[in-house]
């Protein structure tokens, strides 16, 4: 009688539960039972309410601030390790703290590497994530990292719009590689914004490299935080004669007065994924779910089949 691979168990961190339920539904199973006990001072303790001994488990949770999201993931990984789970995969749709991936001035931390080491120390034997802020973060791990691209969702959506004179734009020099990959897939032109920052989240100056006259422009980025860069870029491009400007960003942090900026800007729409819960509805913000992508990759990982197609733009 052939050996039957037992099905994995899928668990969710609190803030990512809605996405995890969608992933489990696409996978064809239900979420495992986790109970969170809380103390009056804010300390909390997760507990698996079912056996995970010898099992492959997936723990789904983005690690965006507040730091409770990261701490909950770490505690769940540790609990799974101590409960003798065989394979423990941290499914992190949005890998938070990733902007601190290098020392850009003296006496600062490399937070992305610190968190990579914390995840491994807590018990993660594999990481599945999407659109890291910097590709080199994969090298901070000693365990396997499956780095997925949201382009598998964005490209079909962009093609469905049937935009004439399409031009892909990067809101900064660092995103030029991503923009060129999209332009190659869509056979379009590319323009790049050059920006200078006064400090984090504050742009002092922006210039446009390329021609957008009479073009429908799509800005491409990995995340949108305060929306200052995207809205400033959109307004600049419309001043330079663009027909329309929309943006696709994988992770919608949308902090501070981001929604107000988007509403007042000349962006026609902002397309994000649900890697982070979108808590405010807005007519300009469209959400594409990444649940089917993660469910497919988790199934392939469990059954040891190739996921190479999910790495390609």
From TrEMBL:
What species is this protein from? Pelagihabitans pacificus
Query: Which UniProt key words apply to this protein?
Result: ATP-binding, Kinase, Magnesium, Metal-binding, Nucleotide biosynthesis, Nucleotide-binding, Transferase
Q: Which reaction does it catalyse?
A: D-ribose 5-phosphate + ATP = 5-phospho-alpha-D-ribose 1-diphosphate + AMP + H(+)
* InterPro entries membership: PRib_PP_synth_CS (IPR000842), Pribosyltran_N (IPR029099), PRTase-like (IPR029057), PRTase_dom (IPR000836), Rib-P_diPkinase (IPR005946)
Q: What is this protein called?
A: Ribose-phosphate pyrophosphokinase
UniProt domain Ribose-phosphate pyrophosphokinase N-terminal: residue ranges? 9-123
The answer to keyword ATP-binding applying to this record is yes
What is one term from the GO cellular component aspect held by the record?
ribose phosphate diphosphokinase complex
